[in-house]
């Protein structure tokens, strides 16, 4: 979780505020409770087991905050029933105008490299957050995000890949990756998948971008479908990305011509031994021949066909995966994530039952 914060690259122009929410199953209480921790009181006595669990999590993020720049951490503990935990997350996100919630995948990697569900209640929580969050949502398949916590100098410690098929969720993934561009310890690759017989739309013309109309030209009535609009938004964002990163040697852009899901899987497999973090869109509502057949084998539709493939036990065994779903707000292609002059608010969440599974953390990123 903390390594994900590090690669998110908080800067002076784009600092990050993190709300770390430790979720604990309600047991023996008549009502739910929210505890706001004061990190300034470092010597306060630990009163019970729940506070001891929260204290361990708080200290880890507090230590990171002390050694990192342009990041602030607000730890909280919410004690409630599993059935209402998503409300705690969504209410916290709404109250603090959070831009991104990141929750942990309900499966964890085992010692033999497989993926095993720790508690199926976590899956229901994630599904409810996806359906009700007032902002964008990410689900993190955490395989450790190998590498140094303290990335410095020109040494590349993380290789990050964004897989782009198109649509709102993939644009959200590309915008999240945009935060990482200037990080000296990160190598970034954007792989765009293009259908072999697809004709790409040109980016918006200068007239379209500035709203200029020549009234001497004959009036032409055009009807744009939602699919056309989505393609134009894809092209515009990709065009801006390539212009901004064309002189950056740490950023790569590759287009893969594929015709079906089998070709797509083969292309992704060429990357799974190189990268330690994949960022992908959930692909909600997007039907594409490039992922045809993959949904038939998907066990966890909440992370999409591509996310489910990357999270499977026989694929990318050492790479973490961040699956993003864009919040449908005012239609901005980078809803809430591209904040060059504003503080970005991120919430860290950890789930626990009584007792909680050891080491199970939820990182919820909101603004």
Concise synopsis of the structure shown:
Residues 159-329 form the Cation/H(+) antiporter C-terminal domain. Keywords: Ion transport, Potassium, Potassium transport, Transport. With 367 residues, this protein is an alpha/beta fold.
Please characterize this protein's 3D structure.
InterPro entries: CHX17_2nd, CHX17_C, CPA2_transporter. This is Cation/H(+) antiporter 15. The chain is built from 9 helices and 13 strands. With 367 residues, the protein is an alpha/beta fold. The chain has a single domain, classed as Rossmann fold (3-Layer(aba) Sandwich), CATH 3.40.50. The strands form 2 sheets. It has an 11-stranded mixed β-sheet, sandwiched between helices. Strands 5-6 form a two-stranded antiparallel ribbon.
């Amino acid at each position: 979780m903390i390594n994900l914060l590090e690669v998110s690259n908080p800067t002076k122009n784009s600092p990050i505020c993190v709300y770390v929410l430790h979720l604990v199953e309600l047991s023996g209480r008549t009502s739910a409770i929210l505890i706001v921790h004061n990190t300034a009181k470092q010597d306060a006595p630990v009163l019970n087991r729940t506070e001891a669990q929260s204290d361990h999590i708080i200290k880890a993020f507090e230590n990171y905050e002390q050694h990192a720049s342009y990041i602030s951490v607000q730890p909280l503990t919410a004690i409630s029933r599993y059935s209402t935990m998503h409300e705690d997350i969504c209410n916290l996100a709404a109250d603090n105008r959070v831009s991104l919630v990141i929750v942990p995948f309900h499966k964890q990697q085992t010692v033999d490299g497989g993926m095993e569900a720790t508690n199926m209640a976590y899956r229901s929580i994630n599904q409810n957050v996806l359906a009700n969050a007032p902002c964008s949502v990410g689900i993190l398949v955490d395989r450790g995000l190998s590498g140094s916590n303290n990335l410095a100098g020109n040494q590349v410690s993380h290789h990050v890949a964004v897989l782009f098929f198109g649509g709102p969720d993939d644009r959200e993934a590309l915008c999240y990756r945009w935060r990482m561009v200037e990080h000296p310890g990160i190598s970034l690759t954007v792989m765009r998948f293009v259908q072999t017989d697809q004709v790409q739309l040109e980016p918006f013309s200068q007239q379209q971008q500035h709203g200029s109309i020549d009234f001497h030209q004959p009036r032409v009535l055009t009807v744009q479908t939602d699919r056309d609009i989505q393609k134009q938004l894809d092209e515009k964002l990709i065009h801006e990305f390539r212009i901004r990163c064309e002189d950056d040697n740490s950023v790569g852009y590759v287009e893969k011509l594929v015709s079906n899901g089998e070709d797509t899987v083969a292309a992704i497999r060429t990357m799974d031994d190189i990268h330690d973090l994949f960022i992908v869109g959930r692909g909600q509502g997007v039907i594409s021949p490039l992922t045809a057949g993959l949904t038939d084998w998907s066990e966890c539709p909440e992370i999409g066909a591509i996310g489910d493939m990357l999270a499977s036990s026989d694929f990318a065994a050492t790479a973490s995966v961040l699956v993003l779903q864009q919040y449908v707000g005012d239609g901005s292609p980078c809803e809430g994530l591209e904040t060059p002059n504003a503080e970005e608010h991120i919430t860290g969440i950890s789930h626990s039952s009584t007792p909680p599974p050891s080491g199970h953390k939820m990182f919820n990123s909101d603004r």
